[in-house]
Design brief:
Elements: H1 2-15, E1 25-26, H2 32-42, H3 51-56, H4 58-61, E2 64-68, E3 71-78, E4 81-89, H5 94-106, E5 112-116, H6 118-127, E6 132-136, E7 142-146, H7 147-150, H8 159-171, E8 174-178, H9 184-202, H10 204-218, E9 226-232, E10 235-246, E11 249-257, H11 264-279, E12 285-287, H12 295-303, E13 308-310, E14 313-317
Parallel strand pairs: 4-5, 11-12
Antiparallel strand pairs: 1-2, 2-3, 3-4, 5-14, 6-14, 7-12, 7-13, 8-9, 9-10, 10-11
Helix pairs in contact: 9-10
Length: 322
């Protein structure tokens, strides 16, 4: 067994030489083009790699990015320490991992990769058998839905959403319009009121989300966001922002509506999906992101009947595999 391990380590080292040291840089809007090219080539429904997602939450996670060949590596602050996101993209995985290993060694960091899908685990196991330990992050699985179902709420399982929408339409003279820069001030007024009503329940998370939304609105066009606004009698009752994260998947980053107005949330969801399907004929799936382990959020996301949950994992380099 010892000789087998030595042979495996020698084979990995010879097959994946370190071609260059990682040069991490702060994420800026100027990086959008090359990052999105790599993310689209990954062709994954995962919301974690979406450029706009990384950018708007950067004040919380402090993303640093680097490129190795046709793969992107990002380093972030997680639970007070450094962590890396799986090197997404195409081509040989090993140069990126070898560069990460050396970077982690020189900086005395543990080599921890987050946001892995099952596909990523298969790639790591093939390139580095027995070198990583894996743990599922059950609170960070993305909820994936069929766009066609959300656009109509058809079927018995979604009849409650359909009924809520019927009630809303019967009680309100409404419109759902594209979110433009001119409507952002009205959305912020609505958001401030929503935050006041939910401050005690959500505490600090409201501050973090408001910071992220401020960044999203400030660079709305530059980030390529698409959004929609639900209005009634000139008042904003809800809004949403999203972006295509793969050729057939749209990720919904933010969705806000007054919970006290029956049907407002299902209306925002349904109408935005309809609008997005018209804009993107190849749209099949909607990623409504994870629930962060919050029970109320989990129940809400489950009520829309996901097609499946995209499982996420953390990989840690083992001390035995050096």
């Amino acid at each position: 067994m010892i000789f087998a391990n030595l042979e495996r380590k020698s084979r990995l080292s010879a097959a994946a030489p370190i071609e260059h040291m990682l040069n991490f840089k702060t994420l800026t809007l100027a990086d959008r083009a090359w990052v999105e090219e790599i993310v689209m080539s990954e062709n994954s429904p995962n919301a974690d790699y979406n450029f706009a997602n990384m950018y708007v939450w950067d004040t919380s996670y402090r993303h640093l990015i680097a490129r190795v060949g046709d793969r992107m590596i990002s380093q972030l602050r997680y639970d007070g320490g450094p962590a890396f996101v799986f090197p997404v993209g195409t081509g040989d995985l090993r140069p990126a991992i070898e560069a990460l290993k050396e970077y982690a060694r020189l900086n005395c960091f543990p080599l921890v990769l987050r946001g892995l899908t099952e596909k990523h685990m298969d790639q790591l196991r093939e390139a580095y058998p027995c070198c990583f330990e894996y743990q599922e992050d059950v609170n960070y699985a993305d909820y994936i839905y069929l766009a066609e179902k959300l656009s109509t709420y058809s079927g018995k399982k979604l009849h409650a959403k359909r009924n809520h929408c019927n009630r809303f339409e019967a009680e309100h003279d409404w419109e759902f319009v594209p979110l433009t820069r001119e409507l952002i001030p009205e959305c912020l007024i609505m958001l401030d009121q929503w935050n006041e009503e939910n401050a005690e329940r959500l505490e600090n998370s409201i501050k973090y989300e408001r910071n992220a939304l401020n960044r999203a609105f400030a660079a709305y066009e530059a980030l390529g966001f698409e959004g929609g606004v639900l209005r009634s009698e000139g008042k904003v009752l809800g809004f949403t922002l999203g972006q295509m994260t793969s050729p057939d998947t749209l990720v919904v980053h933010f969705e806000k509506a007054y919970p006290g107005i029956q049907g407002a949330y299902p209306m925002v969801c349904r109408e935005f999906v309809k609008m997005s399907m018209e804009r993107h004929p190849g749209l099949v799936y909607i990623n409504r992101e994870d629930d962060m382990g919050i029970e109320a959020l989990r129940q809400s996301k489950m009520s829309y009947r996901p097609e499946y949950r995209l499982r996420k994992f953390t990989a840690r380099w083992t001390n035995e595999c050096i």
